[in-house]
Amino acid sequence: MKKAHTITTYYMTYVRIFVLALLSVLFVTIVPLVSLLREIQEFLLNQVVNMGILYAIISGFLLSITLRRRQSLDEYISLELNKIRRIYHLSLHLKEAEPRLAKWFNSLKDALKKYQDRFRGESFSKYDEGNPLFREVTYTIYRLPSLGIIYNTELYRSLLDAAATATESREFIRSKMTNAIGFFQWLVIGMVTVTLGIILVGSTPKDLTSTLAAAAVIFNLFLVLLLLYEYDHSNSKKDQYLASVYANNLSELNNGSKMSKKG
Q1: pLDDT tens digits, one per residue of 123-163
Q2: CA distances to 127, 192, 237, 250 from 65, in Å
Q3: For the chain, what is the domain count?
Q4: SS3 assignment, position 249
Q5: Is residue 241 a contact partner of residue 250, using CB atoms and an 8 Å limit?
Q6: Sequence-distant (≥ 6) Cβ neighbours of residue 7 within 8 angstroms
Q7: Which domain holds residue 68?
Q8: What pTM did the predictor assign?
Q9: Taking burial as the number of CB atoms within 10 A of a residue's CB, which of 22, 149, 155, 242 is the most buried?
Q10: If we measure between CA atoms, which residue out of 180, 243, 174, 230 comes closest to residue 3?
C-alpha cells in the first residue's frame, strides 16, 4: 500500500500550490485597498493571535479527523484484500480435502475472478459497483452446506470468518469513502482563514518587506487548507493504483493450474 499515497506525485497538487501562491499575492494586494483597515490597524494587530489560535484549533481538529479516516480506509482496504486471498486458499484446501467439492470450488474461484476483474482498467471510485459480484462470492460460500457433501467443518468455519471480515471491511470502506468533510465544515474553516488573512494583512506595515512576509504567511494558511483537501479526497492516480491492486490481488487466478499446484 506504499504507493497508495500519491499526493506528492500527483501533478494537480503542484498546480494547486501554484494557484495558492498567486492567490496569496493577490490577497495582500487587494486587502490594503480597504481604507477602513488602516484606521483600525492597531485593533487588528491585537486580534491576530486570537484568530491564529482559533485557526490552529479548527484546522488541527479537521486534519486529525481526516488523517484518521485516511489511515483507517487504507487499513481496511488491506484487510479486505488479505481476507479475499484467505477465502481462496481456504476453499482450495477444502476442495483438496474433498475432491467432490471441485465444482463448488470452481464456482467460487470464478466468482472471485469476476470480482477482481471488475476493477481492471477502472477507477477505485466505482468501488460500490462491485457489490453484486462480491455477494456472488459470499452466496457461493454459504451454499456449501446445502450440497450434501461431507467437508472439513473447521476449515469451513475459518472460511465463514474470512468472508464475514471481508464483508465488514467492505461496509467500512464504503462508508469512509463517502464520509468526507462536509460543506459547513469547509465553510467555517474557509471563513476563519479569510478573516485571519484580512486581519493579518490589515495589521501589516505597508513597506514591501512586510507585505512579502504577509504574503508568505497567507500562503501557508492556504497550504494547510490544501493539505486538508488532499487528504480528505482521493485523486485519479491513487484510484487507479488501488483498482490495480484489487484487480491483481489474486493474479494467480489467471492461471488456474499454476494456482492449484501452489495451493
Answers
A1: 888 888 889 999 999 999 999 999 888 989 999 999 999 99
A2: 23, 18, 23, 33
A3: 1
A4: coil
A5: no
A6: 13, 230, 231, 235
A7: 2-262
A8: 0.78
A9: 242
A10: 243
